[in-house]
Write a sequence for this structure.
DNA sequence: CAGCAGTGAGAACGATCGTTCTCCTGGCCG
DNA sequence: CGGCCAGGAGAACGATCGTTCTCACTGCTG
């Protein structure tokens, strides 16, 4: 606003990172550390080190730790939504799309850095002190509910099936995180199959 | 050990609390504060204030914050197990006992201080840094799995039903916590009813 | 009655951490 | 070529917090 008319992008500095690149590296570092170790067990200094930026740059792009957590959750939400939609789109039919949810979860659970749902973890850690974070988490969960409801509708099943299938997915996530195994995905898938079959033949 | 032969209980001091009473008050305060606000958002000083004991006494009874968290979780585990067993025992038959799980959850969700499963919350907050806490959480969840498995066996249903019903209970807890409503209990109950019916008529 | 053991109240300590500030270096524009 | 602005590295600051220590007191024991 107050700049001169020639507000060129400083961008292409040789040794330095472009703003976009710095943003991405910071978010990636925040995701790995916050998710892997917990938000409160990770200092901003560690994020800086892992991202390879200066503290100044870090605070220039994200005004506070809370804002960084929020942005990393939003990015995770984007990736989750995209992953779910791709998985559903690859299924042969509407019922297959619903079951694909649990196959997607199974693949996630098998990743060695899997530590449960980042949203649930952050909610437990900051939900009571940060309304912004709590809102992002609620939004994520309600978006997932809507996603499942859409697939249920496509399959021609009654709407009451959707929250039931969502509960199975939620339970599978926390169970896999705590037990440290991926079997809950298959169990949820089997239960979902039964519920879908009954709902469709009613 | 090194005390004199007359190791009497100092117990009945007029103004002071007995060791047992202090323990209970501390655990109660820890439960309320740790659960309501998160472990890391609660200082030992606040626990002391809420329990009405001195810091010295507090550290004498619980050698560290981690130990206090562990003991409060163990107490919660006891209360949860007892509540579940009472709820199941009050049901007319084995299927009713399984469904009573979700009624018990519904009652819990409606409590105004409900903030999700304390074990999941603590796991997210300390699971990666405290093996002791992680172990208590895993034990709690596996005990619940066994409890459900026993009821499923009593009902004459195949063992594969048990983890499915447990997933519904887990999902209902996190969903209720984040959404702030109790409807997930009813949804889980309905889904459970369907799964049980199918499992028994197979 | 003298002494001691345990206690309450709270100060003190050491560490951590979120955030800001200082200093310095190196391109870019005029 | 000289001033200027952006950025990097890291020190510094202020607050919080887990844990321990000090000190005065009280009720019991011998």
């Amino acid at each position: 606003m107050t700049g001169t008319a020639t507000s060129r992008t400083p961008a292409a500095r040789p040794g330095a990172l472009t703003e976009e690149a710095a943003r991405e590296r910071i978010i990636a570092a925040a995701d790995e550390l916050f998710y892997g170790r917990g938000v409160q067990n990770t200092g901003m200094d560690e994020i800086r080190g892992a991202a390879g930026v200066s503290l100044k740059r870090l605070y220039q792009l994200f005004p506070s730790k809370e804002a960084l957590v929020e942005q990393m959750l939003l990015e995770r939400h984007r990736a989750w939504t995209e992953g779910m939609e791709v998985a559903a789109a690859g299924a042969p039919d509407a019922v297959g799309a619903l079951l694909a949810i649990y196959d997607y979860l199974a693949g996630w659970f098998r990743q060695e850095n899997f530590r449960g749902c980042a949203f649930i973890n952050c909610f437990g850690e900051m939900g009571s002190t940060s309304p912004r974070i709590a809102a992002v988490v609620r939004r994520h969960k309600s978006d997932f509910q809507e996603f499942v409801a859409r697939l249920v509708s496509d399959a021609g099943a009654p709407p009451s099936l959707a929250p039931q299938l969502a509960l199975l997915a939620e339970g599978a996530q926390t169970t896999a995180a705590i037990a440290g195994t991926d079997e809950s995905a298959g169990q949820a898938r089997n239960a979902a199959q039964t519920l879908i079959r009954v709902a469709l033949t009613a």
Notes: Residues 84 and 101 of chain B are 7 Å apart (CA to CA).
